[in-house]
Amino acid sequence: MALIVHKYGGTSMGSTERIKNVAKRVAKWHDAGYQIIVVPSAMSGETNRLIGLAKEVMPQPNPRELDMLASTGEQVSVALLSMALQAIGKEAVSYAGWQVAIKTDSAFTKARIQSIDDTKVRKDLDAGRIVIITGFQGMDDDSNITTLGRGGSDTSAVAVAVAMKAQECLIYTDVDGVYTTDPRVVSEARRLNTVTFEEMLEMASLGSKVLQIRSVEFAGNYKMPTRVLSSLTDPMMPLEEEAKSGTLISFEEDIHMEQAAITGIAFNRDEAKITVLGVPDRPGIAYQILGPVASANIEVDMIIQNQSVDGKTDFTFTVPRGDYAKAIDLLNDSVKSHIGAASIQGDTKVSKVSVVGVGMRSHVGIASQMFRTLSEEGINIQMISTSEIKISVLIDEKYMELAVRALHKTFDLEKSN
Ligand code: ADP
Ligand code: ASP
Ligand code: MG
Protein backbone atom coordinates (compact mmCIF):
# COMPACT_ATOMS: atom_id res chain seq x y z
CA MET A 1 0.00 0.00 0.00
CA ALA A 2 1.46 3.36 -0.99
CA LEU A 3 2.43 5.70 1.82
CA ILE A 4 1.99 9.46 1.52
CA VAL A 5 3.13 12.15 3.98
CA HIS A 6 0.98 15.28 4.31
CA LYS A 7 2.34 18.44 5.93
CA TYR A 8 0.00 21.25 7.01
CA GLY A 9 1.34 24.70 7.91
CA GLY A 10 0.16 27.15 10.56
CA THR A 11 -2.56 28.86 8.51
CA SER A 12 -3.88 25.46 7.40
CA MET A 13 -4.16 24.47 11.09
CA GLY A 14 -5.23 27.98 12.15
CA SER A 15 -8.63 27.20 13.74
CA THR A 16 -10.64 24.18 14.83
CA GLU A 17 -12.72 24.69 11.67
CA ARG A 18 -9.57 24.48 9.51
CA ILE A 19 -8.37 21.44 11.49
CA LYS A 20 -11.68 19.72 10.75
CA ASN A 21 -11.10 20.45 7.05
CA VAL A 22 -7.62 18.96 7.28
CA ALA A 23 -9.17 15.87 8.86
CA LYS A 24 -11.66 15.57 5.98
CA ARG A 25 -8.89 15.85 3.42
CA VAL A 26 -6.71 13.31 5.19
CA ALA A 27 -9.66 10.92 5.57
CA LYS A 28 -10.33 11.24 1.83
CA TRP A 29 -6.78 10.06 1.05
CA HIS A 30 -7.01 7.25 3.58
CA ASP A 31 -10.37 6.13 2.14
CA ALA A 32 -8.72 5.97 -1.28
CA GLY A 33 -6.39 3.30 0.07
CA TYR A 34 -3.26 5.23 1.02
CA GLN A 35 -1.36 4.90 4.27
CA ILE A 36 -1.09 8.42 5.63
CA ILE A 37 1.28 10.20 8.01
CA VAL A 38 0.41 13.81 8.80
CA VAL A 39 2.98 16.34 10.05
CA PRO A 40 1.27 19.56 11.19
CA SER A 41 2.74 22.87 12.36
CA ALA A 42 1.51 24.83 15.34
CA MET A 43 -1.68 26.85 14.82
CA SER A 44 -0.82 30.15 13.10
CA GLY A 45 0.70 32.75 15.40
CA GLU A 46 1.26 30.24 18.19
CA THR A 47 5.04 29.86 17.83
CA ASN A 48 5.43 33.66 17.77
CA ARG A 49 3.20 33.94 20.83
CA LEU A 50 5.29 31.41 22.75
CA ILE A 51 8.58 33.07 21.81
CA GLY A 52 7.04 36.41 22.85
CA LEU A 53 6.15 35.00 26.28
CA ALA A 54 9.69 33.72 26.71
CA LYS A 55 11.13 37.14 25.91
CA GLU A 56 8.85 38.79 28.48
CA VAL A 57 10.42 36.58 31.11
CA MET A 58 14.01 36.55 29.84
CA PRO A 59 15.11 38.95 27.06
CA GLN A 60 17.60 36.43 25.63
CA PRO A 61 15.84 33.16 26.49
CA ASN A 62 17.87 30.11 27.36
CA PRO A 63 17.81 28.05 24.14
CA ARG A 64 17.02 24.73 25.82
CA GLU A 65 14.04 26.18 27.64
CA LEU A 66 12.96 28.07 24.54
CA ASP A 67 12.74 24.78 22.63
CA MET A 68 10.88 23.16 25.51
CA LEU A 69 8.35 25.99 25.19
CA ALA A 70 8.17 26.52 21.41
CA SER A 71 7.69 22.80 20.74
CA THR A 72 4.39 22.79 22.63
CA GLY A 73 2.55 24.51 19.76
CA GLU A 74 2.87 21.43 17.60
CA GLN A 75 1.76 19.13 20.41
CA VAL A 76 -1.55 20.99 20.55
CA SER A 77 -1.94 20.60 16.78
CA VAL A 78 -1.34 16.85 16.61
CA ALA A 79 -3.76 16.09 19.42
CA LEU A 80 -6.54 18.25 17.93
CA LEU A 81 -6.05 16.77 14.48
CA SER A 82 -6.13 13.24 15.87
CA MET A 83 -9.39 14.06 17.67
CA ALA A 84 -10.83 15.63 14.51
CA LEU A 85 -10.09 12.40 12.63
CA GLN A 86 -11.54 10.24 15.37
CA ALA A 87 -14.65 12.42 15.37
CA ILE A 88 -15.28 11.42 11.75
CA GLY A 89 -14.73 7.77 12.43
CA LYS A 90 -11.04 7.36 11.57
CA GLU A 91 -8.51 5.56 13.72
CA ALA A 92 -5.71 8.03 14.38
CA VAL A 93 -2.83 8.36 16.81
CA SER A 94 -0.66 11.40 17.57
CA TYR A 95 2.97 11.45 18.64
CA ALA A 96 5.42 14.09 19.80
CA GLY A 97 8.82 13.94 18.08
CA TRP A 98 10.51 12.24 21.04
CA GLN A 99 7.94 9.44 21.08
CA VAL A 100 8.70 8.33 17.51
CA ALA A 101 11.73 8.95 18.10
CA ILE A 102 13.03 11.75 15.88
CA LYS A 103 16.64 12.11 17.01
CA THR A 104 18.49 15.39 16.46
CA ASP A 105 21.78 16.98 17.45
CA SER A 106 21.79 19.35 20.44
CA ALA A 107 21.85 22.66 18.56
CA PHE A 108 18.81 24.12 20.33
CA THR A 109 16.57 26.32 18.14
CA LYS A 110 18.29 25.05 14.97
CA ALA A 111 18.77 21.33 15.53
CA ARG A 112 19.39 18.92 12.66
CA ILE A 113 17.61 15.60 12.32
CA GLN A 114 19.98 12.65 12.63
CA SER A 115 17.68 9.65 12.57
CA ILE A 116 14.05 8.63 12.70
CA ASP A 117 12.90 5.31 14.13
CA ASP A 118 10.21 3.85 11.90
CA THR A 119 9.19 0.86 14.07
CA LYS A 120 6.25 2.21 16.03
CA VAL A 121 4.85 4.25 13.15
CA ARG A 122 5.07 1.30 10.78
CA LYS A 123 3.06 -0.82 13.23
CA ASP A 124 0.33 1.81 13.48
CA LEU A 125 0.13 2.21 9.71
CA ASP A 126 -0.12 -1.52 9.22
CA ALA A 127 -2.96 -1.61 11.73
CA GLY A 128 -4.83 0.90 9.55
CA ARG A 129 -4.20 3.96 11.72
CA ILE A 130 -3.49 7.44 10.47
CA VAL A 131 -0.32 8.62 12.22
CA ILE A 132 0.15 12.26 13.19
CA ILE A 133 3.63 13.43 14.15
CA THR A 134 4.58 16.87 15.46
CA GLY A 135 6.51 19.03 13.03
CA PHE A 136 9.42 21.26 14.06
CA GLN A 137 10.71 19.15 16.96
CA GLY A 138 12.90 16.25 17.96
CA MET A 139 14.99 14.97 20.84
CA ASP A 140 18.76 14.95 21.39
CA ASP A 141 20.89 12.15 22.89
CA ASP A 142 20.25 13.45 26.42
CA SER A 143 16.46 13.38 25.90
CA ASN A 144 16.20 17.16 25.63
CA ILE A 145 13.46 18.45 23.33
CA THR A 146 14.95 20.37 20.40
CA THR A 147 13.43 22.43 17.57
CA LEU A 148 14.55 22.65 13.97
CA GLY A 149 14.41 26.42 13.35
CA ARG A 150 11.54 28.56 12.04
CA GLY A 151 9.60 26.84 9.29
CA GLY A 152 11.06 23.52 10.48
CA SER A 153 7.88 21.49 10.04
CA ASP A 154 8.63 21.31 6.32
CA THR A 155 11.88 19.57 7.19
CA SER A 156 10.18 17.22 9.67
CA ALA A 157 7.72 16.18 6.97
CA VAL A 158 10.27 15.50 4.25
CA ALA A 159 12.58 13.72 6.71
CA VAL A 160 9.71 11.50 7.88
CA ALA A 161 8.82 10.79 4.24
CA VAL A 162 12.42 9.76 3.58
CA ALA A 163 12.72 7.62 6.71
CA MET A 164 9.41 5.88 6.01
CA LYS A 165 10.15 5.52 2.28
CA ALA A 166 6.96 7.35 1.33
CA GLN A 167 5.86 7.61 -2.27
CA GLU A 168 5.47 11.39 -2.05
CA CYS A 169 5.56 14.25 0.43
CA LEU A 170 2.73 16.77 0.02
CA ILE A 171 3.33 20.17 1.62
CA TYR A 172 -0.09 21.80 2.05
CA THR A 173 0.08 25.54 2.64
CA ASP A 174 -1.80 28.82 2.27
CA VAL A 175 -0.76 29.37 -1.36
CA ASP A 176 -1.43 26.91 -4.17
CA GLY A 177 2.20 26.26 -5.03
CA VAL A 178 5.60 27.84 -5.58
CA TYR A 179 5.34 31.10 -7.50
CA THR A 180 7.81 33.09 -9.58
CA THR A 181 8.04 35.30 -6.50
CA ASP A 182 6.04 35.82 -3.31
CA PRO A 183 2.47 36.35 -4.60
CA ARG A 184 1.83 38.59 -1.59
CA VAL A 185 4.37 41.08 -2.95
CA VAL A 186 3.80 40.81 -6.71
CA SER A 187 0.19 40.14 -7.63
CA GLU A 188 1.22 39.15 -11.18
CA ALA A 189 3.40 36.34 -9.82
CA ARG A 190 2.74 33.06 -11.61
CA ARG A 191 2.55 29.58 -10.16
CA LEU A 192 5.17 27.16 -11.45
CA ASN A 193 4.06 23.64 -12.34
CA THR A 194 7.54 22.37 -11.62
CA VAL A 195 10.67 23.90 -10.16
CA THR A 196 14.01 22.13 -10.26
CA PHE A 197 15.48 21.02 -6.98
CA GLU A 198 18.50 23.31 -7.52
CA GLU A 199 16.30 26.34 -8.12
CA MET A 200 14.14 25.59 -5.10
CA LEU A 201 17.28 25.24 -2.99
CA GLU A 202 18.50 28.68 -4.12
CA MET A 203 15.06 30.28 -3.71
CA ALA A 204 14.72 28.86 -0.18
CA SER A 205 18.23 29.89 0.82
CA LEU A 206 17.73 33.37 -0.62
CA GLY A 207 14.63 34.06 1.44
CA SER A 208 11.54 32.42 -0.15
CA LYS A 209 10.06 31.04 3.02
CA VAL A 210 7.53 28.81 1.25
CA LEU A 211 9.84 25.88 2.11
CA GLN A 212 12.52 25.68 4.79
CA ILE A 213 15.86 25.16 3.07
CA ARG A 214 16.67 21.96 4.95
CA SER A 215 13.48 20.34 3.69
CA VAL A 216 14.65 21.02 0.15
CA GLU A 217 18.06 19.55 0.96
CA PHE A 218 16.43 16.38 2.30
CA ALA A 219 14.18 16.12 -0.74
CA GLY A 220 17.17 16.51 -3.06
CA ASN A 221 19.58 14.25 -1.22
CA TYR A 222 17.08 11.41 -1.11
CA LYS A 223 15.18 12.23 -4.31
CA MET A 224 11.91 12.40 -2.39
CA PRO A 225 9.12 13.59 -4.69
CA THR A 226 7.83 16.73 -2.95
CA ARG A 227 4.89 18.86 -3.96
CA VAL A 228 3.67 22.22 -2.60
CA LEU A 229 -0.11 22.66 -2.82
CA SER A 230 -3.05 24.48 -1.26
CA SER A 231 -4.80 23.42 1.93
CA LEU A 232 -7.50 26.03 1.35
CA THR A 233 -9.31 24.28 -1.49
CA ASP A 234 -12.46 22.21 -0.92
CA PRO A 235 -11.20 19.21 1.09
CA MET A 236 -13.55 16.97 -0.85
CA MET A 237 -12.20 17.97 -4.29
CA PRO A 238 -11.40 14.91 -6.45
CA LEU A 239 -8.24 13.26 -5.22
CA GLU A 240 -6.79 12.75 -8.73
CA GLU A 241 -7.06 16.47 -9.39
CA GLU A 242 -5.56 17.39 -6.02
CA ALA A 243 -2.68 14.94 -6.49
CA LYS A 244 -1.60 16.77 -9.65
CA SER A 245 -2.12 20.31 -8.38
CA GLY A 246 0.45 22.76 -7.03
CA THR A 247 4.18 22.69 -7.76
CA LEU A 248 6.32 19.59 -7.99
CA ILE A 249 10.01 19.86 -7.17
CA SER A 250 11.64 18.08 -10.05
CA PHE A 251 14.98 16.36 -10.22
CA GLU A 252 15.09 16.61 -14.01
CA GLU A 253 17.62 19.29 -14.86
CA ASP A 254 16.60 20.22 -18.33
CA ILE A 255 12.89 20.93 -18.01
CA HIS A 256 13.47 24.69 -18.07
CA MET A 257 16.71 24.73 -20.04
CA GLU A 258 15.20 25.74 -23.35
CA GLN A 259 12.86 28.20 -21.77
CA ALA A 260 13.20 31.27 -19.60
CA ALA A 261 16.57 32.30 -18.22
CA ILE A 262 15.00 33.26 -14.92
CA THR A 263 12.58 31.06 -13.00
CA GLY A 264 11.96 33.16 -9.93
CA ILE A 265 12.87 36.10 -7.75
CA ALA A 266 13.64 35.73 -4.06
CA PHE A 267 14.15 38.44 -1.49
CA ASN A 268 15.31 38.62 2.07
CA ARG A 269 14.69 41.42 4.52
CA ASP A 270 16.69 39.70 7.23
CA GLU A 271 20.00 41.30 6.24
CA ALA A 272 22.43 43.74 7.88
CA LYS A 273 25.62 45.15 6.42
CA ILE A 274 28.86 45.72 8.30
CA THR A 275 31.92 47.56 6.95
CA VAL A 276 35.34 47.52 8.54
CA LEU A 277 37.05 50.65 7.23
CA GLY A 278 40.73 51.34 6.74
CA VAL A 279 42.04 47.82 7.16
CA PRO A 280 45.66 47.10 6.24
CA ASP A 281 45.70 45.14 2.96
CA ARG A 282 47.75 42.12 3.96
CA PRO A 283 47.37 38.34 4.11
CA GLY A 284 45.19 37.05 6.92
CA ILE A 285 42.93 40.07 7.27
CA ALA A 286 39.75 38.37 6.05
CA TYR A 287 40.42 35.56 8.47
CA GLN A 288 41.12 37.92 11.38
CA ILE A 289 37.81 39.68 10.78
CA LEU A 290 35.57 36.76 9.91
CA GLY A 291 37.17 34.09 12.14
CA PRO A 292 35.81 35.58 15.40
CA VAL A 293 32.43 36.20 13.73
CA ALA A 294 32.19 32.54 12.71
CA SER A 295 33.33 31.41 16.17
CA ALA A 296 30.43 33.37 17.63
CA ASN A 297 28.14 31.21 15.44
CA ILE A 298 27.15 34.17 13.24
CA GLU A 299 26.53 33.27 9.63
CA VAL A 300 28.20 35.56 7.10
CA ASP A 301 26.57 35.83 3.70
CA MET A 302 27.81 38.34 1.10
CA ILE A 303 31.43 39.57 1.31
CA ILE A 304 33.40 42.20 -0.60
CA GLN A 305 36.86 43.58 -0.19
CA ASN A 306 37.96 46.57 -2.24
CA GLN A 307 41.24 46.94 -4.11
CA SER A 308 43.61 48.94 -1.92
CA VAL A 309 45.10 52.18 -3.16
CA ASP A 310 47.38 53.18 -0.30
CA GLY A 311 47.82 49.84 1.43
CA LYS A 312 44.46 50.26 3.20
CA THR A 313 41.16 48.72 2.16
CA ASP A 314 37.53 48.40 3.31
CA PHE A 315 35.98 45.06 4.07
CA THR A 316 32.19 44.66 3.91
CA PHE A 317 29.98 41.70 4.72
CA THR A 318 26.39 40.88 5.65
CA VAL A 319 24.93 38.98 8.61
CA PRO A 320 21.37 38.13 9.69
CA ARG A 321 19.76 41.20 11.31
CA GLY A 322 19.29 39.41 14.60
CA ASP A 323 23.05 38.92 14.89
CA TYR A 324 23.98 42.47 13.88
CA ALA A 325 24.42 43.97 17.37
CA LYS A 326 26.41 40.98 18.53
CA ALA A 327 28.69 41.16 15.47
CA ILE A 328 29.30 44.92 15.87
CA ASP A 329 30.16 44.51 19.57
CA LEU A 330 32.49 41.67 18.78
CA LEU A 331 34.33 43.62 16.08
CA ASN A 332 34.65 46.73 18.27
CA ASP A 333 35.79 44.77 21.31
CA SER A 334 38.18 42.23 19.92
CA VAL A 335 38.97 42.85 16.26
CA LYS A 336 39.22 46.57 15.50
CA SER A 337 42.35 47.50 17.43
CA HIS A 338 43.90 44.08 16.92
CA ILE A 339 44.02 44.54 13.13
CA GLY A 340 44.46 48.32 13.18
CA ALA A 341 41.16 49.17 11.44
CA ALA A 342 40.07 52.82 11.33
CA SER A 343 36.40 52.28 12.17
CA ILE A 344 33.41 49.95 11.96
CA GLN A 345 30.17 51.02 10.31
CA GLY A 346 26.88 49.24 9.78
CA ASP A 347 23.45 49.46 8.24
CA THR A 348 20.46 47.33 9.19
CA LYS A 349 18.12 48.83 6.59
CA VAL A 350 19.21 46.68 3.68
CA SER A 351 17.59 43.81 1.78
CA LYS A 352 18.80 41.23 -0.68
CA VAL A 353 17.03 40.62 -3.98
CA SER A 354 18.02 37.63 -6.11
CA VAL A 355 17.09 36.33 -9.54
CA VAL A 356 17.27 32.53 -9.84
CA GLY A 357 17.14 30.15 -12.78
CA VAL A 358 18.97 27.13 -14.18
CA GLY A 359 18.36 28.73 -17.60
CA MET A 360 21.04 31.28 -16.65
CA ARG A 361 23.63 28.69 -17.60
CA SER A 362 22.63 28.95 -21.23
CA HIS A 363 21.72 32.64 -21.40
CA VAL A 364 24.18 35.54 -21.36
CA GLY A 365 23.57 39.10 -20.28
CA ILE A 366 21.26 38.36 -17.34
CA ALA A 367 23.39 40.38 -14.92
CA SER A 368 23.46 43.45 -17.16
CA GLN A 369 19.70 43.19 -17.72
CA MET A 370 19.21 43.06 -13.96
CA PHE A 371 21.54 46.02 -13.29
CA ARG A 372 19.95 48.10 -16.07
CA THR A 373 16.49 47.56 -14.59
CA LEU A 374 17.66 48.62 -11.14
CA SER A 375 19.43 51.67 -12.56
CA GLU A 376 16.31 52.71 -14.48
CA GLU A 377 14.44 52.61 -11.17
CA GLY A 378 17.19 54.68 -9.55
CA ILE A 379 18.07 51.88 -7.14
CA ASN A 380 21.67 51.82 -5.95
CA ILE A 381 23.37 48.42 -5.73
CA GLN A 382 25.48 48.11 -2.59
CA MET A 383 26.83 44.58 -3.01
CA ILE A 384 26.60 41.83 -5.62
CA SER A 385 27.10 38.09 -5.40
CA THR A 386 26.59 35.43 -8.04
CA SER A 387 26.57 31.70 -8.54
CA GLU A 388 25.96 29.66 -11.65
CA ILE A 389 22.18 29.94 -11.29
CA LYS A 390 21.60 33.13 -9.29
CA ILE A 391 22.52 36.81 -9.06
CA SER A 392 21.94 38.61 -5.77
CA VAL A 393 22.14 42.31 -5.01
CA LEU A 394 22.01 44.13 -1.70
CA ILE A 395 19.95 47.32 -1.80
CA ASP A 396 18.28 49.84 0.51
CA GLU A 397 15.33 48.00 2.08
CA LYS A 398 12.90 50.76 1.14
CA TYR A 399 13.31 49.86 -2.56
CA MET A 400 13.00 46.12 -2.13
CA GLU A 401 9.44 45.64 -3.33
CA LEU A 402 9.97 48.08 -6.19
CA ALA A 403 13.04 46.12 -7.28
CA VAL A 404 11.21 42.78 -7.11
CA ARG A 405 8.29 44.12 -9.18
CA ALA A 406 10.53 45.75 -11.78
CA LEU A 407 12.66 42.62 -12.18
CA HIS A 408 9.58 40.41 -12.39
CA LYS A 409 8.47 42.53 -15.34
CA THR A 410 11.88 42.77 -17.02
CA PHE A 411 12.26 39.00 -17.08
CA ASP A 412 8.68 38.46 -18.31
CA LEU A 413 7.87 36.24 -15.36
CA GLU A 414 4.15 36.97 -15.43
CA LYS A 415 3.88 35.31 -18.82
CA SER A 416 3.52 31.57 -18.80
CA ASN A 417 6.33 29.69 -20.45
P1 ADP B 1 3.16 27.44 6.21
O1 ADP B 1 2.61 28.03 7.46
O2 ADP B 1 2.15 26.63 5.45
O3 ADP B 1 4.43 26.71 6.43
P2 ADP B 1 4.63 29.71 5.23
O4 ADP B 1 4.10 31.05 5.63
O5 ADP B 1 5.81 29.21 5.94
O6 ADP B 1 3.43 28.67 5.25
O7 ADP B 1 4.97 29.72 3.65
C1 ADP B 1 3.99 30.09 2.72
C2 ADP B 1 4.19 31.55 2.34
O8 ADP B 1 5.41 31.68 1.62
C3 ADP B 1 3.16 32.10 1.38
O9 ADP B 1 2.02 32.56 2.07
C4 ADP B 1 3.91 33.22 0.66
O10 ADP B 1 3.62 34.48 1.18
C5 ADP B 1 5.38 32.92 0.96
N1 ADP B 1 6.22 32.84 -0.24
C6 ADP B 1 7.44 33.45 -0.38
N2 ADP B 1 7.95 33.22 -1.57
C7 ADP B 1 7.06 32.44 -2.24
C8 ADP B 1 7.03 31.86 -3.55
N3 ADP B 1 8.05 32.03 -4.41
N4 ADP B 1 5.96 31.11 -3.88
C9 ADP B 1 4.95 30.92 -3.02
N5 ADP B 1 4.92 31.45 -1.77
C10 ADP B 1 5.95 32.20 -1.39
N1 ASP C 1 5.70 26.32 14.13
C1 ASP C 1 7.04 26.51 13.64
C2 ASP C 1 7.26 27.95 13.17
O1 ASP C 1 6.34 28.75 13.26
C3 ASP C 1 7.41 25.52 12.58
C4 ASP C 1 6.66 25.67 11.27
O2 ASP C 1 5.63 26.34 11.20
O3 ASP C 1 7.11 25.06 10.28
O4 ASP C 1 8.33 28.29 12.75
MG1 MG D 1 6.40 27.36 6.62
Explain how this protein is built:
- It is a single chain.
- With 417 residues, the chain is α/β, with parallel strands linked by helices.
- Helix content is 35%, strand content 25%.
- The strands form 4 sheets. The chain has an 8-stranded mixed sheet, with helices on both faces. The protein has a 6-stranded antiparallel sheet with strand order 14-15-13-16-18-17. A two-stranded antiparallel ribbon has the order 4-5.
- Helix 1 packs across helix 4, helix 7 packs parallel to helix 9 and helix 8 (197-205) packs antiparallel against helix 9.
- The longest helix is centred in the first third of the chain and has 16 residues, at 16-31.
- It is globular and about 75 Å long.
- The mean pLDDT is 95.
- The site of magnesium ion has 3 residues, from loops.
Can you describe this structure in just a few lines?
The protein is 35% helix and 25% strand. The chain is α/β, with parallel strands linked by helices and 417 residues long.
Terminal-residue CA separation: 37 Å
- Give the overall form: globular
Q: Treating each run of at least 4 consecutive H or I residues as one helix, how many helices?
A: 14
- Total beta-strand segments: 18
Largest sheet: 8 strands, mixed
Bound molecules: adenosine-5'-diphosphate, aspartic acid, magnesium ion
Nearest-angstrom radius of gyration? Answer: 23 Å
Structural class: alpha/beta
GO biological process, one term: homoserine biosynthetic process
Protein name: Aspartokinase
Family: Belongs to the aspartokinase family.
Pfam families: AA_kinase, ACT, ACT_9
